[in-house]
Amino acid sequence: MLNLLYLIPALPLGGFLALICTAGRLPRVIIATIGVGSVGVSAALSCMVAISFVSGPPVGHAFSQVLWTWMELPGFAPRVAFHLDPLSLVMVLVVTVVGFLIHLYSVEYMWHDDGFNRFFAYMNLFVASMLTLVLADNLVLLYLGWELVGICSYLLIGFWYREQANANAAIKAFVTTRVGDTAMVVGLFVMFYSLGTLQVQELMAKASEQWQVGSTVAVVAAVLLLGGAVGKSAQLPLQTWLPDAMAGPTPVSALIHAATMVTAGVYLIARTHVIFTLAPVVQTAVAVIGVATLLIAGFSALAQTDIKRVLAYSTISQIGYMFLALGVGAWSAAMFHFVTHAFFKSLLFLGAGGVILAAHHEQNMFRLGGLRRDLPLVFWTFLVGAACLSSLPLVTAGFYSKDAILWYAWSSDKGGIWLWLGGSVGAFVTSVYTFRMVFLTFFGEPRTHVNRRPGVLVGIPLVILAFFSIFAGFVELPHNLGHVRVFSTFLERVLPAANSAAAGAGPETLLQVLSGVLCSSGVLLAYLLFLRGPEHVRVLAETGVGSFLHRLLRSGFGFDRVYDLLVVRPFMWVARVNRNDFVDSLYAAIAVLTDTLHHCLSETQTGRVRQYAFGIAAGAALALWMVVFR
Amino acid sequence: MTPVPMEHGFLLAGTLFCLGLVGVMVRRNLIFVLMSVEIMLNAAGLAFVVAGSRWAQPDGQVMFIFVLTLAAAEVSVALALVLQFFRRFRTLDVDSAAGMSG
Q1: Which residues is A412 bridged to in the sheet?
Q2: Nearest-angstrom CA–CA distance, A336 and A342
Q3: How far apart (Å, rounded) are the C-alpha atoms in residues A519 and B35?
Q4: Contact yes or no for A613 and B25 at CB 8 A
């Protein structure tokens, strides 16, 4: 069964090739069958692979499949090879299953779009690339997948490229992540230069043998890898591209900019965790970046009006939690939050897509409202997602995953009270903005007319994802509540277990109660502020400080403004001044000189025979003179 | 009868050649240009003859006969061209055929 591993990425790739080669000449039903079917079969295959992996684990809990040697160089021969271990298995399962559900949803969502074929071709390519990324056996192949998902993200953000704003958002996303990618590729060079291999397992083994803890080379490599992860996962300071990336179709936002691609950075850090353990400074930096990002993005989400932008900021913030977990060494907690986040965030995005579809593509929450009677299915599933995001205690998956992170932020030997405090404040803010979104969209007075109800293809993914958002949490329960450790035991074969310095059921229960109280009070606050008394918010926003704060949060703490001033404008200025590239002027001068000489010479072509005769005579005289007198 | 010194012969040939050359360069009438070319050819022929007589070689006179044939052939072609020229431009001014300038 495991030998069929290569088919998992190959099928979506085949789907992409089939769709792109036929260029939309097929009927829509067949396009949808190819597009959804390839990912669906791949999801079924990965489930079967997972079952056989768990029931009969291969030697060392890792299975490698070498397809061919990519390129053969002396001392460097990267292979196209897949490496399946618990970590990549979890990623593969999430990518294919969530990917399949979102593909299914897209059939209805994109049915009337002109680019139906193009959409499914890009989506299939994305799934294939993402699977290559997570299954890659060496960092070169991983980087190939890394760049391919980047290009798919670019293509899909700019899917409706006829609008300038969408094209700009696509370019912004591509260029911003490119900053991180460059750091990452330099990091690969550093590691190859120092250790002579890029094969992940070999690299990790050699690194822990040859590098000292805290040595310069380890720190440099870790910082550069972190740069790549920060760019891809939209963390501080490269987070600005993700809110704009919402210009793409909603299923794209759900698949690429919530569930899978943006968590590639988390996967990268978990995959190369040895290097981060060897550079404790950088690992602390990961945690600090995570906390800072989750706070900044959480507060920014409070003031957004566009439902998709709220979700985008919330994604940034939730990935911040994953970074926090990675930073305190709670590797499997990070992966657990990745899994639950993939379910509930794609559920929320798909729900938002249902709302947008029903309300004439209206995305402003203040013009929506009262939709819970018209769209009951979307409302209930969205509510499940929202509860999960704001981690309502005991019933939701989000509670268990976020609680694990907060617990390790508190108790791990790399954690501390400040990291925990940041995470807890973030959790409070999360529940406020989440339920602000729910109340504004689904409660209150109806402010929009519902023109169509979502059909069965939208409904099925919503229900399945809602199911997972609740029940995916029960594979991992904390010590004091059932103590189920299925997920972390599975992952601890590749990722080391977190060290809890201050273990004990007492403080853990206390922290859980505290976060439960915080989350519920957040919901209550959102209810009071946005449903009961919206006029208080309006009054508050009209005071001087209030309006300043509102504008600050609305603009995501002005990062765009700062980057615009510091990077974009100077660059555009240089581009404008140097419109005719000054390096070219040398070559232009040669052209001008030749042209001038040509004109001078062509002046002598008068067409008058007598002048030619004179020229011949003068030339003959000169030749004679030279022969005789020289 | 004292032979004409070689220098005199060459001087005459050179003078004739220069006269012909100046004629080619300054005359605008095609017929006169052709006549000037004839003069230059004959100057060259004269130089051959003078040199042949100086070194008592027959080659000089052989070359003159060649020059003579050449001149005859040249004139026959040139006169045909002059006729065509006149038909096209209705004048014999060489400067009127300056259409290939630049």
Answers
A1: A500
A2: 10
A3: 116
A4: yes
Q: How far is A612 from chain B (nearest CA, A)?
A: 9
Convert A308-344 to b/e letters by CB count within 10 Å (16 or more is b).
bbbbbbbbbbbbbbbbbbbbbbbbbbbbbbbbbbbbb
Which residues does A473 contact at the CB level (< 8 Å), separation at least 6?
A340, A396, A397, A398, A399, A400, A401
Model confidence at A1: pLDDT above 80? no
From residue B96, give the alpha-carbon distance in Å to each of A610, B30, B88.
11, 11, 11
Element (H, E) at A83: strand A79-84
> What are the tens digits of pLDDT across the range A206-230?
888 888 888 888 899 999 999 999 9
Cβ distance A333 to A314 under 8 Å?
A: no
A617 contacts B21? CB cut-off 8 A: yes
- Tell me whether the omega of the peptide bond preceding residue A249 falls within 30 degrees of 0, making it cis: no
DSSP-assigned letters across all residues of A311-365:
HHHHHHHHHHHHHHHHHTT-HHHHHHHHHHHHHHHHHHHHHHHHHHHHTTT--BG
* Residue A618 at interface with chain B, using a CB cutoff of 8 Å: no
What is the largest distance, in Å, between two alpha-carbon atoms of chain A? 117
DSSP-derived secondary structure for A36-77: HHHHHHHHHHHHHHHHHHHHSPPGGG-EEEEEEES--BTTB-
CA separation (Å) from A508 to A408, A411, B79? 10, 9, 120
Inter-residue contact A27 to A90 (CB < 8 Å):
no
d(CA A629, nearest CA chain B) in Å: 18
Alpha carbon distances (Å) from B80 to A216, B23, B34: 94, 21, 12
Q: Is A445 left (phi over 0), alpha (psi -120 to 50) or beta?
A: beta
Residue pointed to by tokens 């593909």: A103
For A523-560, the pLDDT digits (tens) are 888 888 877 777 777 777 778 787 888 888 888 788 88
CA gap A268, A628 in Å, rounded = 85
> Which two tokens mark A543?
């005071």
Is A607 within 8 Å of B26 when comparing Cβ atoms?
Answer: no
Lookup: tokens for A483: 């103590």
CA-nearest residue to A613 within chain B is B25
Amino acid (1-letter code) at residue A616: I
Taking 50 as the pLDDT cut, the residues of chain B under it are: none
The contacts found for A488-493 with CB under 8 angstroms, 24 or more apart, are: A488/A332, A488/A333, A488/A336, A490/A54, A490/A86, A490/A90, A491/A86, A491/A87, A491/A90, A491/A331, A491/A332, A491/A335, A492/A332, A493/A61, A493/A85, A493/A86
In the structure, what pLDDT confidence band is assigned to residue A256 with cuts at 50, 70 and 90?
confident
What's the DSSP call for residue A395?
T
pTM (2 decimals)? 0.80
CA nearest to B17 within chain A: A617
Residues of chain A found within 8 Å of residue B21, distances taken between Cβ atoms: 613, 617
Q: In whole angstroms, give the CA distance from residue A229 to residue A222.
A: 10
CB-closest option in B26, B27, B100 to A607 = B100
Rg of chain A over Cα atoms, rounded to whole angstroms, equals: 29
**Side chain identity at residue A558, one-letter code:** G
Angle at alpha carbon of residue A447, lines to A104 and A437, rounded to 5°: 60
Q: Give me the pLDDT at residue A194, please.
A: 87
Read off the pLDDT of residues A335-366 as tens digits, 9 standing for 90 and up: 999 999 999 999 999 999 888 888 877 888 88
Q: Would the CA dihedral through A20, A26, A27, A29 be positive or negative?
A: negative
Quick check: A608 and B102 CB within 8 A? no
Sign of CA dihedral A113, A118, A122, A124: positive
- What residues are paired with A82 via a beta bridge? A65, A136
Distance from C-alpha of A243 to C-alpha of A314, rounded to nearest angstrom: 10
